[in-house]
Design brief:
The chain has about 350 residues and is an alpha/beta fold. Helices cover about 40% and strands about 15% of the residues. The chain has helices at about 30-35, 40-50, 65-75, 105-115, 135-150, 160-175, 200-205, 235-240, 250-265, 270-280, 295-300, 310-320, 325-330, and strands at about 5, 10-15, 15-20, 55, 85-90, 120-125, 150-160, 180-185, 210, 285-290. It has an 8-stranded parallel beta barrel with strand order 3-4-5-6-7-8-9-10, surrounded by 5 helices. The chain has a two-stranded antiparallel ribbon with strand order 1-2.
Length: about 350
């Protein structure tokens, strides 16, 4: 297993991380992801630890806290061997202060997450989304206090726009508060918008990317291909409306390119999709989930080898999409505004 520093911090994370969103299945949406209980979670975590995975990601909103509870019980007695990432901001109740990144909500959310996880600190604490109604100074001063109190080790954000993140970093620098060192983002072979603004920002400001849904919301499993019926077991029918959108034609084009690379490498479609991400700028770790031990072990085999330059170029060309403004215009001024990933 390879380990990379998380952004500009000194923390080293495994390039593959395990996502515990499949733990619990507390409602219809999360049951479509998975419904792993404590005993199965223990087995999956042991497999991860044996493979060198050291980061386990969850969120308070995953199955309304049930994912955190199961993860906490599953890592009991092993806390010093691993890192835990969790999140706040999204609604956890119906009250006016049961959501957002206010001081009130963050302190309570952190304390409740610590209780559910059965730990006295969270290694990486994410703002799950940007709260535009709370001053960034209130959010960041609260997070800084959580760090200095020892309840949180590092802070990160998730699903921010470029200006959300830059405004937050500027405020942290102005007041000497702890900075976001990571940004948990959607990025995949069928969703490359991260490259347009957030990747250049991450390079410039030393913010590492933690990739969520690296298989395109379940579309890059190898089970979806042109001219074939959809898989009988899939989360897509129940969750597609809440995830990234992609046309069937674009998906099929990308999968066909992956299939060509699969024949050359002997690897699976998911393994190739994960390995491609691990060779992109700013990527510190790729978070993946697994419903069972077999699926977990297959995903873990995405490391220990690398795609060739020619194979990466083939995948880049197949997955390329038209840039929106101002990014198509900026791409014409590469002499002084170079792209982190050159145009295919």
């Amino acid at each position: 297993m390879e380990y990379r520093q998380l952004g500009g911090s000194g923390l080293k994370v495994s390039v593959l991380s395990f996502g515990a969103g499949t733990f619990g299945g507390g409602n219809e949406f999360f049951r479509a992801w998975g419904d792993t209980g404590v005993e199965e979670a223990k087995r999956l975590i042991d497999v991860c630890l044996d493979a060198g995975v050291n980061l386990f990601d969850t969120a308070n909103v995953y199955s309304k806290g049930l994912s955190e509870e199961i993860l906490g019980k599953a890592v009991s007695g092993k806390r010093q061997q691993l890192l835990i990432s969790s999140k706040a901001t999204f609604p956890m109740g119906d009250g006016p202060n049961d959501l957002g990144s206010s001081r009130h909500h963050l302190i309570r959310s952190c304390e409740e997450s610590l209780r559910r996880l059965g730990t006295d600190y969270i290694d990486i604490y994410h703002m799950h989304g940007f709260d535009a109604t709370t001053p960034v100074e209130e959010t960041l001063s609260t997070l800084d206090n959580l760090v200095t109190s020892g309840k949180v080790r590092y802070i990160a954000c998730s699903n921010f726009s470029g200006w959300h993140l830059m405004k937050s970093l500027t405020a942290s620098d102005r007041y000497g508060w702890t900075r976001y060192v990571g940004h948990q983002v959607y990025y995949s072979l069928i969703g490359r918008e991260y490259e347009w603004e957030l990747m250049p920002l991450g390079l410039d400001q030393k913010v590492g990317a933690l990739i969520w849904s690296p298989l395109g919301w379940g579309r890059l499993t190898g089970k979806i291909r042109r001219g074939q019926p959809p898989p009988e077991v899939s989360r897509l029918p129940k969750t597609a409306g809440m995830g990234p959108q992609v046309s069937d034609e674009h998906l099929f084009k990308v999968v066909e390119a992956i299939d060509e690379v699969a024949k050359e490498t002997g690897k699976t479609v998911p393994q190739i999709a994960l390995n491609w991400l691990l060779q992109r700028p700013t990527v510190s770790t790729v978070i993946f989930g697994a419903r069972n031990e077999e699926q977990l072990k297959q995903n873990l085999d995405a490391v220990g080898w690398n795609l060739t330059v020619a194979q990466i170029a083939k995948l880049d060309a197949a997955s390329k999409v038209a840039r929106v403004y101002p990014y198509w215009h900026q791409a014409q001024f590469a002499q002084r505004n170079p792209l982190p990933v050159p145009e295919a």
